[in-house]
Amino acid sequence: MVMELISRKTARQYYGDPLLGNLIDAVFKKYQGQNGVRGNAKICVSSSEEAQRLQDYFGNRLKHLIRPGSEVEVPLKVFAEELQLGYRLSIPDLYEVLKGEMLLTKLEQRQLKEEAWAQIFMQVRMELREKAEIDLDNEVFRAETFDWLKRLEGGEASGYHVLRSAMNKGEDAVDALFCCLKGLWYLLVDKEKIKDKIGKNVKEIRIPIFAVHVTSDKDSHGFDWTKTAGRLLWYALYDIDIQRIKAGKKMASEKLIVPEYMQKRQIYRNFGLKDDDISSFSHVFAPHFVSGTSPRTLNLREIQSYGKFPMYSALYVFENPAVLSHIIDELIHFLDMNGLSLEQIPKKFPALLCTSGQPRSAALEFITKCLEANPNCLIRYSGDLDLPGVQMMQGIQGQFTFRFEAFRMDDKTYRNYSDANHLRLSFQDKTVLKRMGDELSKVMVELGVKIYQEEFVKDLAEDVLETIRQEKEIE
């Protein structure tokens, strides 16, 4: 979940560059006209700035210099493959990220009138009346959903691509839409009925419990993101939330208050559904959060329900658990040698956190809470020196730009440890790294090896201990 949000944000930053605008628009136009990934997108370069940006984008794939007035073309197949490789997005996904609306090919626009598409909606209406006694023409339902179903059928509402894809793949699109609409009915029209059925006294309903009482096969995973009905329900709620803002029933600023990594969860919460806030966790070793010599595993619910956070001077974030454990061992030894216990460390001392790979919402929330308590808290991140490690670093940097600092994730560290005995970066990895353009990625492309965080753990430990020595001297 968190990876998807990060990829979309990074893609928006990269492809949202105005100097790539002509190329991106040409790709979208060609995709529409060719009904998919076919043919070449062509543009005429209009300025020297655009020429230089395109030269950087294409790199050594072009054998000639791009100048103002040059005609440039790119095969949509190549563009789509690199977009999927670098950001896990399709061309329609990128269009929605950049434009805020769906990309429909000419063929898709014609297919909206197909009998098969219309039949889905006719059958769903009939089944909801017969099986659930739900009338989708109910005025309250139509008003609360802003006529989402009608707009969906016309290809104008979020969720269209989810349902269209299910139909094209031969999935049971009728059942997915049936479960989604039944869920919307209970959330927006008849919530008391579902709460009585569940025996619920508090405001929120947990999604798996809601799913087992709504889905056709009583599947507790029926509204998971991996299921068509789950994605369809989320997009419906997202669409309705946006319509509420447009209608003045909700302030647009409310959306901005929620961190981007929490926005997907927040959509559920806006409608009284509670997401899984226990499975999302991070490992923390921090004064006043742990006692003894072991890190503590905190889940998202614990972090969000915790009171006032300590004002840590810095937060060291590591990708790998073994690295965190090693540094804790060194830290405990340092404290023992100085006659101190963890409980005696002042609150402002640095805290340690491990993401165990791709950061979950819990890790990002812990970082956010630390910054809220102390806006001057420095977020120092270190991970593996391979493509996923660099991408994770960029993702966290994108979330916490102003107080972020990478440590031991630089070209100097990479050169110090790289040699021929390391695992090699793949051609695809180097292709993505080449597009990043910073000093670290350039050196990684040049030397072409993977260096894991565990290899330079001694340096990491020394960095942390030096910070603690300085804090101790200040005390």
TrEMBL record:
Any coiled-coil regions, as ranges: none
Ranges for domain DUF2399: 297-464
Pfam families registered for this protein in UniProt: DUF2399, DUF3323
InterPro entries assigned: CHP02679_N, DUF2399
Domain Conserved hypothetical protein CHP02679 N terminus: 38-287
Name of this protein: DUF2399 domain-containing protein
Species this chain originates from: Desulfitobacterium hafniense (strain Y51)
